[in-house]
Write a sequence for this structure.
């Protein structure tokens, strides 16, 4: 990777925000006690995951992964908005999880929006960096 190339070279750097978001949503829904998810986990032998002693550290790890992925996005596209929304949503998730399922859902939605915005910004940056070939010119 050249010093002027801002795209990450590894799979993990490109997909860390998406992986972290998936794990965060999973752990948050388990913490909220979503019946279908809890039943599925028990049925496939992963019932130990539904205890707070496992879920809270798991949620913290996935939130950190999400925020690290959003931070890598700043290095690629230069916009801090997705990272700021992600930080606010992560903090709201950790606070509201104890008080309100509705506000927790809104915080999860904020993380989804932040990650989606980060993906869009990275794609837009990649399109802008890709040189147009002569055959691709509009006619």
């Amino acid at each position: 990777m050249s010093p002027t190339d801002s795209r990450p070279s590894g799979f993990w750097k490109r997909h860390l925000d998406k992986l972290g978001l998936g794990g965060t949503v999973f752990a948050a829904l388990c913490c909220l006690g979503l019946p279908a998810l809890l039943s599925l986990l028990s049925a496939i032998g992963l019932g130990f995951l539904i205890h707070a002693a496992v879920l809270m550290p798991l949620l913290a790890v996935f939130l950190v992964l999400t925020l690290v992925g959003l931070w890598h996005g700043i290095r690629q596209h230069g916009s801090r908005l997705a990272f700021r929304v992600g930080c606010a949503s992560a903090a709201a998730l950790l606070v509201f999880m104890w008080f309100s399922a509705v506000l927790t859902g809104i915080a999860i939605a904020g993380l989804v929006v932040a990650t989606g915005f980060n993906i869009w910004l990275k794609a837009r940056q990649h399109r802008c960096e890709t040189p147009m070939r002569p055959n691709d010119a509009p006619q």
